[in-house]
Amino acid sequence: MESLKLLISAYACEPGKGSEPGVGWRWALESARLGHEVWVITRENNRPGIAAGLAAAGPAAGRMHFVHYDLPPALRRWKRGGRGVHLYYLLWQWGAWRVARRLHAEQRFDAVQHLTFGVIRQPSFMGRLGIPFVLGPVGGGERAPLALRRHFPWRGWLRDGLRDLVNFSVRFDPFVRGMMAQATLILVKTPETLAWLPARHRGKAQTMLEIGIDARPDTEQAVVRPAAEGLRLLYVGRFLDLKGMEFGLRALAALHARGQAATLTLIGNGPEARHWQHLAEALGVSASVNWIAWMKHDELLAAYAAYDAFVFPSLRDSSGNVVLEAMAGGLPVVCLDLGGPAQMVDASCGRVVPASGLGEAEVVARLADALAEFASSAELVAGLRAGARARAGQFAWRRVVARVWGEGGLGYAGVVGDGRRRFVFGHA
Q: Do 159 and 236 fall into the same domain?
């Protein structure tokens, strides 16, 4: 495979971290492991973590180059605590493009990719370099269905209402419009974000998630559950209204009403903790719900073997790292047909519950149906455990990045096969 010289814009980029920082680092690392020479523009505060990551990166480190850029100290102080962060990010992107322009004059890159932040609402100017420009993967077009927001507190209604308004208005933002027009390939995380794109840009868009996972040894043995204990369910994550655990708790109560034993463990914390606890009491299931505020990551990975299914009824996650982690740990997943989790889960590793166009009562009933299916067959759960591990393997980091920069990948084939002028690909 011919080596390319790639430039990556990754505002967030730091090894050993989850979410956006981890995405920035792993795409850079895996692109280098594929044999490409990779240059990354990122923030100054990522320098110590990157230095440690390079020391452990092996031969790929010799093909990785980092340029650290930040705005003046006065502006960095101004954004602390979230104040002015969006304007700061816009100015950083403009400054990063100016750095990229100087770098390109020296290095003559074959292509440029904007990675983080991976949100379609926030512009990148890297398309102005005049070389093949890969935008994403980006999300942000996901939307919690109005019919399922009834349980939101007023702050949640306000938050999602403002988000809907921004998602509508940003389609007219000249910077965002220019970014989409300049992109030669747009990678979107979910079908919802694909639908958000203006129709004229969808022909150059592909759906793929940005997250990946490292292979885990298949050594954990599922804990055999006594029949009297019933189904053991797990949720891990922030306690937020948009995570949909209102439906999860009601589905647990519906399962009990059918005479099927089940317990639910929730690991995490957040503003909805008190509300969820009160709801569990009101539903009469509090004795079957366990609350764990925090757990070390290594302990969490080992804990997956003690449960039968991972319940994640989120209303608008664009990715879902914890879902992929649970599957890698051999835990079947039950999620809604919304956002990123629905792109990872299929019938081989869990159940995707219809939610689009349905009301709350219908969603709860369908969640309960899926859980009842698990409760009725230990053999089914065992098969789905194996399926979860296999499905997670399809999201190994190298495989994810190779879809773009591997031989035959969307970006690589376009740059090499068409004279480094434009991408040629079919719409999925």
A: no
